[in-house]
Amino acid sequence: MPDDKRSAQFPRGFAEAVPHNRALGLTVVAMARGSATFQLPYDAKLVGNPDTGVLHGGAITALLDATSGAAVFSSLVTWVPIATLDLRIDYLRPAEPPRAVLAHATCYKMTKNVAFTRAVAYHDDPADPIASSVGTFMISTRPGPSPKGTDR
Amino acid sequence: MTATLVELLAEAKRTGDYQALLAAVPYSKFLGLSAALDADGLVTTMTYGDHLIGNPTLPALHGGTLGALLESAAIFELMWRAETIVLPKTITVTFDYLRSARPADVHARATITRQGRRVCNVRAVAWQADPAAPVATAHAIFLVKQDP
């Protein structure tokens, strides 16, 4: 259960309002300080192999990125922008159509500049994952152009 | 009966026209992907749409869409270059996000760094206006062995 009202409630509406998250149909299943669980519903438009009906890896990527970012947001004491630095995803087995995919992410380390995340994507058992990921996020990215104009 | 993905791939390799193959993959349509050959090889383009936005404040494209574009570009490159007709399976992929991607088209190109009998290593780069200023890169390992 959420142990911090602000960190638990802020990202829910935020995450579901992100246009691409809405396009994917992502919903927030649970939020707590330092962790997040999102759901990606099965949708024919997200299929990567029309012969098998299996969801495209890209949809799993977006799910893991969004859930990991939410875990970082939920770890913040004050709201600051964040940006994904890198994300590694291991695909362990295909998602099974037409089941929804859940992702559970934790922000296991937060420093002044960088947050570190782990996440798994699964159907109903995190111990039987479809994919697992590790990510790093830059904390407190400044809005607007940097001195060079294009760096995030 | 519609053509299978492998049949569409064989046809694309024969004609050099990848649009029918892309149109057969729902997720490619969802992202707005197209592929074209230029002098240096295959370029995959993700045509801008509002549904690709991940940060409405900046605004910037969702990291997941850039990841999907890079992974798709790597898969298309493998399917195009490989001698046998196989659908590569992604084993692992790492994305580096270098700049926020503006609400505009994104292009991607992939390079096979090692082609083995069972696995292939591929690097991919995505850019917007300036190829010298990539927005994201990826390196990925694919299983390419055909199921017996």
Overview of this protein structure:
The complex is a heterodimer of chains A (152) and B (148). Chain A has 152 residues and is of the alpha+beta class. Chain A has one domain: Hotdog Thioesterase (Thiol Ester Dehydrase, Chain A), CATH 3.10.129.10. Chain A is 24% helix and 36% strand. In chain A, the strands form 2 sheets. Chain A has a 6-stranded antiparallel sheet. In chain A, strand 1 and strand 2 form a beta hairpin. The longest helix of chain A is centred in the middle third of the chain and has 17 residues. The radius of gyration of chain A is 15 Å and the shape is globular. Helices cover 28% and strands 36% of the residues of chain B. In chain B, the strands form 2 sheets. Chain B has a 6-stranded antiparallel sheet.
What's the total count of β strands of chain B? 8
Q: CATH fold name of chain B, please?
A: Thiol Ester Dehydrase, Chain A
Overall, the morphology of chain A is: globular
CATH class of chain A reads: Alpha Beta
- Uncertain runs of chain B are none
User: What summary fits the major beta sheet of chain A?
Assistant: 6 strands, antiparallel
Order of helices and strands of chain B, N to C?
HHHEEEEHEEEE
CATH homologous superfamily heading of chain A? Hotdog Thioesterase
What attributes characterize this protein structure?
heterodimer; A: 152 residues; alpha+beta; Thiol Ester Dehydrase, Chain A; six-stranded antiparallel sheet; two-stranded antiparallel ribbon; 3 helices; 8 strands; globular; disordered N terminus; B: 148 residues; two-stranded antiparallel sheet; 4 helices; 36% strand
SSE topology:
The complex is a heterodimer of chains A (152) and B (148).
Chain A: H1 5-17, H2 19-24, E1 27-32, E2 35-40, E3 47-49, E4 54-55, H3 57-73, E5 82-91, E6 101-110, E7 114-122, E8 131-139
Antiparallel strand pairs in A: 1-2, 2-6, 3-4, 5-8, 6-7, 7-8
Chain B: H1 5-15, H2 19-24, H3 26-31, E1 33-38, E2 41-46, E3 53-55, E4 60-61, H4 63-81, E5 89-97, E6 106-115, E7 119-127, E8 136-143
Antiparallel strand pairs in B: 1-2, 2-6, 3-4, 5-8, 6-7, 7-8
